[in-house]
Write a structure and sequence with these properties.
The protein is an alpha+beta fold. It has helices at about 10-25, 35-45, 95-100, 140-150, 150-165, 180-195, 205-215, 265-280, 290-295, 315-335, 335-355, and strands at about 1-5, 45-55, 55-65, 70-75, 85, 105-115, 125-135, 170-175, 225-230, 235-245, 245-255, 285, 300-310. The protein has two domains: about 1-130 and about 305-355, 3-Layer(aba) Sandwich (Aminopeptidase), CATH 3.40.630; about 130-300, Gcn5-related N-acetyltransferase (GNAT) (Aminopeptidase), CATH 3.40.630. Strands 1, 2, 3, 4, 5, 6, 7, 8, 9, 10, 11, 12 and 13 form a 13-stranded mixed beta sheet that branches. This is GNAT family N-acetyltransferase.
């Protein structure tokens, strides 16, 4: 086994990574492709990759970030929506052996994909990640929406027409390359985080830079995709995500609050689904967490997990003491709708105070 920095991956190892991932039969999440790890490695000095070998061949790849006392996290932890190792089927290794080889006392994840059997025993909690299935084309998806919630689709399409009449011709660009529009989206998203009392991810330089670098990334397995809804020449809603040949991972959606009465976010997601289907993409993964717009648009869900793998020792004990009580407290609130509602109201009030 080699434990190296992402930039030290050889071309052949990158190709082996892609080939192993394709053989898993799991959805082709761009977060699990080597390009995502390579890009994170450019902004996160703590990023590492374990390269596993079997019978003289590349047999697995485990990307991670290593902190003090061997406390590890999933690569891009905090923004990555699909996590785990890319391993050859039947590879005889345990999670404990892998952590030992990586000098890790613990490895934390918050979006471990289903099918990561190596880490299944350490799972603490599971979550649904809503998806939009467009494998049969956009018309089939729209027909499904009409059957499940005809009022929702009719109202959203009516608002789109009204937007065109009152503001300007509605235009959608699936893959906008203008970095100025990306900056606008990031400003909208930062403002949204502050309004809702949440941590502003774009206040972190490494996330800012990561998104800009991924916007420039163009490979079959992982490409940054900026989708924009315009009214006239003005962008009013946008989304930045990552796409593979068959999956679009929804990541950072936001809109201009001035146009909120038109539901521009919903219009944007419908147009994204339509354009993605035309590109041959079969699924939009909207990411972990419940939200009204996700419930309106989804056709199903994937399962992701949160938890930590430990290797017995003092480092693991210190990690448990520092992280587990907080995680359990969050889970306690999250799993009780009344408490979760109170928490959200409190966050919103905090956001309003910050804005004054």
């Amino acid at each position: 086994m080699r434990v190296i920095k992402p930039e030290q991956l050889r071309d052949q190892e990158i190709e082996s990574w892609r080939a192993l991932r394709a053989k898993t039969g799991l959805p082709a999440s761009p977060f699990m492709e080597p390009e995502f790890t390579l890009t994170v490695g450019r902004v996160r000095p703590a990023a590492w990759v374990a390269v596993l070998r079997q019978n003289g061949e590349d047999a697995g790849f485990f990307p991670y970030e290593r902190g003090p006392l061997g406390h590890g996290r999933a690569i891009g932890f905090g923004v990555s929506d699909c996590q785990g190792a890319v391993l050859r089927s039947g590879l005889g290794i345990s999670a404990r052996d892998l952590l030992r080889a990586c000098s890790l006392s613990a490895w934390e994840y918050d979006n471990l994909e289903a099918g990561q059997d190596l880490f299944t025993p350490s799972v603490a909690e599971g979550f649904d990640s809503p998806v939009i299935d467009i494998g049969e084309g956009y018309d089939a998806y729209e027909q499904r929406l009409r059957g499940a919630s005809p009022k929702f689709l009719k109202t959203t399409l009516a608002k789109e027409r009204k937007l065109g009449r009152q503001v300007g011709e509605v235009r959608f660009v699936f893959d906008e390359r203008d970095p100025a529009v990306l900056r606008t989206l990031m400003e909208w998203k930062s403002a949204q985080y502050r309004r809702t009392g949440r941590r502003d991810r774009f206040a972190k330089d490494w996330i800012n830079t990561l998104v800009q670098l991924l916007h420039e990334t163009r490979t079959s397995g992982c490409s940054g995709t900026l989708s924009v809804l315009y009214a006239g020449d003005r962008p009013i809603a946008a989304h930045f995500g990552l796409r593979s040949a068959t999956v679009l991972s929804c990541w950072f959606p936001a809109y201009d609050p001035e146009f909120s009465k038109y539901s521009p976010g919903l219009i944007l997601h419908l147009r994204m689904a339509e354009a993605a289907a035309a590109e041959g993409i079969g699924m939009l993964d909207m990411g972990r967490g419940s939200a009204e717009y996700k419930n309106s648009l989804k056709t199903g869900q994937l399962r992701v997990h949160e938890g930590s793998s430990f290797r017995p020792g003092a480092g693991a004990a210190l990690y448990w003491v520092s992280r587990e009580p907080s995680r359990r407290a969050h889970g306690f609130v999250r799993n009780r709708p009344k408490l979760a509602g109170i928490a959200q109201q409190t966050l919103t009030r905090i956001g309003k105070l910050r804005g004054n």
